[in-house]
Amino acid sequence: MVVLILALLAQSPAPAAATPPAVTAAAADRRNVEVPDTDTHMVLADFATKDAWEAHRARVRLQILTAAGLDPMPEKTPLHPQRFGKLERDGYTIEKVLLETWPGFFLGGNLYVPTTPGKHPAVVSPHGHWNYGRLEHQPLASIPLRAANLARRGHVVFIYDMVGYNDTIQVPHSFNGRRETLWAFSPLGLQLWDSIRVVDYIASLPEVDDTRIGATGASGGGTQTFLLAAVDDRIAYAAPVNMVSAYMQGGSYCENAPGLRLGISNLDIAATLAPKPMLLISATGDWTKHVPQEEYPAIKRIYDLYGAGEKLTEHQVDAPHNYNQETREHVYRFLDQQAFGRTDDGKEKSAPIEKLGDMLALMNHPLPAHALNYDGLLADWQRVARAQADATEDLVVLRARFARVLAVPSLAHVSRDWMGVISRGDGDRILSAWTPGKGRPLVVVHPDGVPAGLALPEVEAARKAKRPLLVLGVFQTGSSVAPRKRTHNHWLTFNVSDDQARVHDIAASLAWLKVDGGADVLATGAARYWAAVAVAATGGSHALAFDVNALSGDDQVLEEQCFIPALQRAGGLRTVQRLVARSDSWPRSSSGQGSLR
């Protein structure tokens, strides 16, 4: 019998100058070495064909929806729109609007409608992190002037709140936590849902031609603009302002849901709009200063795959971060061209700036009695998540959704070297001890790594039975522990959690085995969660050699033992139990740990 790696290494001391495989593997593991954050320089990959891009585009779209907690999409319940407080102005009207975008959750905004008859194109217009939100009026940004000028030019315009601003105050603007992360409950998800429901509302208006709906916003509103355009095909054209950048991906929780930018950036997201018309506005005084030389050419390569390079345009303003008059005038011309097929000089005209009380929907107009607070909204979000997972009868669909949440990487290229290090592609490194044999393989995962796994009595029993045996030292366990930067506020937006990486390692190791009949997976302690989740996501004929029903699906337990963004949103342990099989070689025991024959 030949037992490779750590078992041999433990018996034979290495030369003094040698570096132990564990140290080498952990130090070389890309997940420890490359830890991107919101300020990491990002590059949009090259795509040789339109088909290759469109396959990537589909993945990006699903990644956005998964990170936002919108996969599957929640039910679109009645909006119960409240439209009131009309102001008559020269060439347009303004009304206050409240929309019930989720039962008990209300979004505030203002609707600007041209006074000309007939159907009009529309613009949905989220705002950035300005002090007054959608009502900001100052030299660097005036949202009311933008809306008034567009309405005079013939566009129906809806300006609406970020969560936690103005009329949309049932939850704070910035919130996060390990519980919320498990349920994919985030400001980004709520705002993207609000934006989708805004399009529902705008498209339903008798004044609107729903084939001509555009979107524009700056800063955080720019992020909302390209996220919405990426997932909602009803957006026909867009002008994200001062936000598409290879150098900064957004600094707020409302722009950085966990899992959003694993392997992608805002360039990938913005490029999903191709081949629809898009105007990229940048500024010399912020993180978009390189757009004409870097981001615009990169995204244009995607447009060129469609033969539509002319549909992507850009303009840079010599100013700090802004949506100032020069920027607005370029956007007016762009939106006019898309909506009407004509344009003029785009010069902005003055318009009255309304009193805040005349614009705020909740001024002397309280929320309905059934309005939810933060805890109530989270509880209802959790209820919907459980119901959607439980109602999904097709296990293929359920498994695919679960795999998206886990962000399981490609397992097409998994190898194992002579030192026992299993590698996925050129990045992940997994320590292992392998003993060939006959029959169904046993894969062992211990939370303290390979030596602890080798010491299990079940492993000795498998050796005596001459079964194939693979003992794993998964990410950041035992001798695989290595320094990893986790200090950036939004690090889970760009990096998988430790437990998520452990699941990836188990999935990759099962792929390396290449056994048609599957393997039995034995795990102890917290590793039982990682193994159960890995088998649930990968499918095949693999079975668990422990009682998955003994595992707790409570939030607090998962926060400590299996912390994976959106795990609960996908159904958590209830879904895992539906997707895994139990090994016939494992008899049920009162302890729930099991034993192997």
From TrEMBL:
<dbReference type="GO" id="GO:0016787">
    <property type="term" value="F:hydrolase activity"/>
</dbReference>
<keyword id="KW-0732">Signal</keyword>
<protein>
    <submittedName>
        <fullName>Putative dienelactone hydrolase</fullName>
    </submittedName>
</protein>
<feature type="signal peptide">
    <location>
        <begin position="1"/>
        <end position="18"/>
    </location>
</feature>
<dbReference type="InterPro" id="IPR029058">
    <property type="entry name" value="AB_hydrolase_fold"/>
</dbReference>
<dbReference type="InterPro" id="IPR050261">
    <property type="entry name" value="FrsA_esterase"/>
</dbReference>
<dbReference type="Pfam" id="PF05448">
    <property type="entry name" value="AXE1"/>
</dbReference>
<feature type="domain" description="Acetyl xylan esterase">
    <location>
        <begin position="193"/>
        <end position="240"/>
    </location>
</feature>
<dbReference type="InterPro" id="IPR008391">
    <property type="entry name" value="AXE1_dom"/>
</dbReference>
<keyword id="KW-0378">Hydrolase</keyword>
